[in-house]
Design goal:
343 residues; alpha+beta; Arc Repressor Mutant, subunit A; 2 domains; five-stranded mixed β-sheet; two-stranded antiparallel sheet
């Protein structure tokens, strides 16, 4: 029996950055957060995290109140309907290469603060964003978001994750990109001013398999679908997360036992995890934290219930662990964890 899927949670720093535009425009950010199912108190705890559903809801709320598909982060708004119109154009394309060219041409017309560009050289495609004016932290977050969603949309068009060679950020973005390697599942490099990603040019020949009917279904789930749909489930980290999820309520298997289950020696397992920038203990802690946040959003579960589901023999031990992960006790977190819109 397959273990339930546990989505990665999102650092509160992402929430703080995406509401910069609303804050600069003098809007009531606390009200916007509450409408998205996010308690404003979480912003005061740097280690706290939100679910992907909460973050996706925040994107939708910001888009509505700002009348801007880049959430007020740029000096010039991106008109509502731009994303839908671009998708309608892209599903008419024959190949990924044609779709990227068409999409970037479209956004050249729609964007005033930065432009996407694509070049092919020596069998490698380079996608980069070029700022048209002074780049502050709000514009930088808009550019990084556009870069990530462009990659997600490209993967959706061909119905598979396009493996990236690397992702490049300006050095000034380094403090804000701690989740980038996990989001793109590719090495992250820092340069003086370049923002973008690279992949093998042979992927440009992939056929676009989406159509107007699948687009309707896709738009009902966007942007949440772009956050998770084409994650590489074959990565060692994801395989271990799935394996450990089956054992959360009992004693976690040792690294040696996990290696045996995956037909690897402990040495090979450690080395491959290092290559993915991970450690076994960190995977266990992150999984428990993400599942705990998921359970805390289910009011029918008591805190002792959640502690048992996570393999803690005593609720007090769970309390200490959760506070170490998020900076908040589970009781306080549950009080600040608002129900989603419409609940």
């Amino acid at each position: 029996m397959a273990a339930p899927i546990t989505h990665h949670t999102i650092a509160i720093a992402q929430v703080i950055q995406i509401v910069q535009g609303a804050r600069q425009h003098g809007l009531d950010v606390d009200a916007i957060l509450k409408r998205s199912g996010i308690a404003p108190a979480l912003l005061d705890s740097p280690l706290s995290r939100v679910t992907q559903g909460q973050y996706a809801a925040l994107i939708i709320v910001l888009r509505r109140v700002m009348h801007d598909e880049l959430w007020g982060l740029c000096r010039h708004p991106l008109k509502l309907g731009s994303f839908v119109q671009s998708c309608r154009l892209l599903v008419q394309c024959r190949t990924l290469g044609e779709a990227l060219h068409t999409g970037f041409q479209f956004y050249h017309l729609m964007l005033d603060d930065f432009v996407p560009r694509m070049a092919v050289s020596q069998g490698v495609v380079s996608v980069r964003l070029v700022s048209r004016g002074e780049r502050d932290t709000a514009l930088a977050y808009a550019e990084r978001s556009f870069c990530f969603f462009s990659y997600g949309l490209a993967s959706w068009l061909v119905a598979r994750r396009i493996p990236l060679l690397d992702v490049t950020y300006p050095e000034a973005d380094a403090p804000y990109t701690t989740d980038a390697e996990r989001l793109f599942q590719a090495p992250v490099r820092y340069g003086r001013c370049r923002l973008g990603f690279r992949f093998d040019a042979r992927w440009l020949d992939l056929p676009v398999v989406q159509n107007t009917q699948s687009l309707k279904e896709f738009l009902l789930q966007a942007p949440a679908s772009l956050l998770v749909k084409y994650r590489d489930q074959s990565s060692l980290t994801e395989r271990i997360r799935r394996l450990l999820r089956r054992h959360l309520a009992a004693e976690m298997p040792s690294l040696e036992a996990v290696g045996q289950a995956l037909a690897m020696t402990p040495q090979t397992l450690r080395r491959r995890l290092r290559d993915e920038g991970q450690g076994y203990q960190a995977i266990k802690d992150d999984l428990r934290r993400d599942v705990a946040i998921e359970y805390l959003g289910q009011p029918e579960l008591t805190l002792p219930d959640i502690a048992l589901h996570l393999g803690f023999s005593e609720a007090s031990t769970f309390h200490r662990a959760f506070k170490g992960w998020t900076g908040l006790s589970p009781g306080v977190y549950r009080q600040t964890h608002l129900p989603p819109p419409g609940a």
